[in-house]
Automatic annotation (TrEMBL):
The protein, known as: Ig-like domain-containing protein
InterPro entries (UniProt xref): Ig-like_dom, Ig-like_dom_sf, Ig-like_fold, Ig_sub, Ig_V-set, TCR_variable_region
Boundaries of every Ig-like domain copy: 2-107
SMART domains membership: IG, IGv
Originating species: Rattus norvegicus (Rat)
Keyword tags: Adaptive immunity, Immunity, Immunoglobulin domain, Receptor, Signal, T cell receptor
Taxonomy, superkingdom: Eukaryota
SUPFAM superfamilies reported for this sequence: Immunoglobulin
Classification via Gene3D superfamilies: Immunoglobulins
Organism phylogeny: Eukaryota, Metazoa, Chordata, Craniata, Vertebrata
Length: 107
């Protein structure tokens, strides 16, 4: 089945340091890829997404490039701030599939 793998657990960085959170995926489809962020005391919210090979998603100084060849979508930020303290989740979604009834989106 489809899956994503994040290799990091807790990451502690000094302010101004660079951040990389690795995400690899396995899928039989051609998925859209997402990073979500969850700040303390809040629910998860979408940080960035990409839906095609070599597309770069970016938001709030974070970026991730859809690497179809290496099946990766690593989250990066050049200089982290204390306000970036949060839990980060990588996720994927199947592409929209054509059906006789129209378009159907599978999560």
């Amino acid at each position: 089945g489809d899956s994503v793998t994040q290799t990091e657990g807790l990451v502690t960085l000094s302010e101004g340091a660079s951040l990389t959170v690795n995400c690899s995926y396995e899928t039989t489809q051609y998925p859209a890829l997402f990073w979500y962020v969850q700040y303390p005391g809040e629910g998860p919210q979408l940080l960035l997404r990409a839906s095609k090979a070599n597309e770069k998603g970016s938001s709030r100084g974070f970026e991730a490039t859809y690497e179809k060849e290496t099946t990766s979508f690593h989250l990066q930020k050049a200089s982290v701030q204390e306000s970036d303290s949060a839990v980060y989740y990588c996720a994927l979604s199947d592409t929209v599939a054509e059906t006789t009834a129209g378009a159907e989106h599978k999560l």
